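Sanity check. The docking grid for adenosine-5'-diphosphate depends on where the pocket ends up, so I'm generating a full predicted complex first rather than guessing from homology. Inputs follow.
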Amino acid sequence: TVFNVGSINVDHLYQVDHFVRPGETMGSSSYQQLLGGKGANQSVALAKAGAKVKHVGAICHSDTHIIEQLQSYGVNTEWVAKVEETTGHAIIQLTGEAENAIILHAGANHTLTSRQIKSVLDNLQQGDWVLLQNETNLVAEALQAAQAAGAKVAFNPAPMDVELTRKVLPYLDLLIVNEVEAMDLAQVDTIEAAADKLPKDYPDIAVMMTLGKEGVRYFSAQEDIQVPAFVVSAKDTTAAGDTFIGFCLAELSQGTPMQQAMTKACAASAICVTRMGAAPSIPTMNEVNDFIAQ
Ligand code: ADP
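Predicted complex below; grid placement will be based on this.
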């Protein structure tokens, strides 16, 4: 089982010519409302990849349709609290160049309690993973408690908080970062410099670095593995990283070797970037297997 302690958002997607500029009021040519948030996306990806996933989070009590949506993907929602606070949401601008710009409001995602986390961790079994992103409160506490409870711990520090990430490194089995997060953490300006510096700065941790259309690189004290991206025509990169993380962790939690897990995850995220939106753009394991076999 993967316990994913993470955000649940409603994404409002607007198709635009360019990102809105200071003082500008701009029309949008299309609008869609979809389930999102890095946490929920990663739970959906885990479920679609065939993992047993329990989402730990919070939404506004009136938004029960979100629970139904998560369940329809196969995500267990027993640990999703229903609170007074508004459900987290994101305002997403999409351009024709497959770029996005996002405003986030955390809302209920910042109402997790120590008690909720403790109750969840009381249910851990041997071999379970605990996954977190940085869109909920109590991140450091949850990571530390997860390690203490004997879980395998993965952290995707998105959005990046360098101080927090450095503080929690001792609790992690796997750190998963994209290019921007890797450069921020290494405090360098190029991805090459980050790839050079991170293993030297943190020789004891395993780092998964996703590199957009360049693919992904993993390094630990023992291994250094690179997997190229699949060549596709990208339409919307929203949730590419989340898809990668969900599929990679789903594979690892089922004992798949690292390189094979990375390849599956690259294929899944390549499919994701060819489709619009977040959760709905995440493929199923069958689609991924067909894509690889092509
Ligand atoms: P994030 O969405 O967090 O910024 P990345 O952009 O690194 O993450 O994307 C995650 C993964 O998605 C990459 O490792 C790669 O496998 C895949 N991917 C992203 N963009 C493309 C693309 N244009 N073509 C093919 N695969 C892509």
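Relevant for the grid: The chain has one domain: 2-18+28-293.
Also worth noting: The pocket of adenosine-5'-diphosphate is lined by residues 178, 210-213, 215-216, 229-230, 232, 234, 237, 240-241, 244, 266, 269-270, 273 (CB under 6 Å).
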